[in-house]
Amino acid sequence: MALDSYLAAHNLALIPRQSSYRAVVTRSPISKGSVIIESPPLCSFPTSSVADSICNHCFNSQVSSSHSLMRCSRCKSALYCSVRCQRKAWNLHHKWLCDGIITNNTNGDYEMLRRVCLVIGGIAKKEYLTDYDVLYETFGGLMDHKNDYSQDMLEYFNHVATAILNELSSIKNFNKNNFTTNNLVSFLCIFGCNNFTVHDNQIFPVGEGTYPVGSLFNHSCYPNAVVMYHGNVQVIKAIEDISSNDEVMISYIDTANTKTTRQQLLTAKYYFDCECIRCNDNVPLMTFKDVDHLLVPASSTMPTTLLLELSTRQRTLLSPLLPSLFTIPTSIPPTLLPSLLSQPHTPLTLLSQHLSDLLRNELWDIAAGIGYRILAIYILCYPKYHPMIGLHLYTMAKCFWNSTSGGRTAVEEAVKLSASARAVLEVSYKDCGKINWDVINAIDDLSMMALKELNI
Ligand SMILES: [Zn+2]
Ligand SMILES: [Zn+2]
Ligand SMILES: [Zn+2]
């Protein structure tokens, strides 16, 4: 019952659905840009590649210009942004990790299971965990899909579960009898098909988390909501106006993939066949089947001469087609897709790879042209207020601002692109904490500089 009233307090309800077990629906209209629900993790930890640059508890990377993150004075490994975070982490898991009773293991499965068991096993001090009762109840109701995992995987899980049970038995007060290896295998199965990758304000992965409330939301390849993170707090934001009693849906995978790839990714990890509007190909205005053609991966790279030619062609072909992208809301020009399809096949993965190389080498003008083509593809496969579109518009604004040969026109383009980037990103980044808002501030700074140069 706790979960029902928790959701009701956010104007949400969980209803049974024949096709998908259950669905989260709204009980009153939600406008685009609103926070649908905010929820802390049952457990989370930073990925090893960034563990040395973010707070081990809240994933904050910035403290202040005069303070750096502080290290646990005993183990010298865990980093914290504040005494408050250090105290929380200490009482939830670090007390046992730090002492060396439990070996630090960078394997995510061990780490997550260890932390979840400390919390559920009554060792961790739950008063340091927000909304514990709701998280615990919700976690218990998640599907483990145990029958869908391969025998090899279940054997591996069994191995991890046994190791963790042995480890935890050495802790005073840990009641081993509360758990069986089987329970722990179920937990690992739940992690496998429910856990989230936590990302920063550039959508770069920074951690892993068990977010039982977030796991209640079903997937769509053309979602009406996105998952954002304010530190390690998960925030579900509406990127469309959502009517009363409509289902709120998020994406579990990067949806800039063909239907075949998306379906493969979803069945392999989440064990369901997607029947969303995009997979059923019944969105008016365009056919996703044709968009798929632009997303087919290729293995070879493009020679520089071809890249240059492609970049120039995108600017002449797409630039006049896309003025509607500079106004929000964006409308998709009917000739956009035919224009993209009439050109040589250049898959998105390849274009993205080339774009990052061009940006790294500061080849701004060619990057801007390639950026046009990526933008056009994004517009066709992401919902229009998706943060990927906003971040890409910002990247393009930077390309035009840095362009050395574009003159006044390029600066004007930078102004228009920054305005669009802001309008798109505001929807998902607003009310998501300072770190996310910093991106909007950076866009404003760019825009100010450009306007100043134009003497406006
Ligand atoms: Zn912190
Ligand atoms: Zn320590
Ligand atoms: Zn789908």
Automatic annotation (TrEMBL):
Residues 55-98 form the MYND-type domain. InterPro entries: H3K4_H4K5_MeTrfase (IPR050869), SET_dom (IPR001214), SET_dom_sf (IPR046341), TPR-like_helical_dom_sf (IPR011990), Znf_MYND (IPR002893). The keyword Electron transport does not apply. Residues 12-253 form the SET domain. One of its GO terms (molecular function) is zinc ion binding. Keywords: Metal-binding, Zinc, Zinc-finger. This is 10405_t:CDS:1. It comes from Paraglomus occultum.
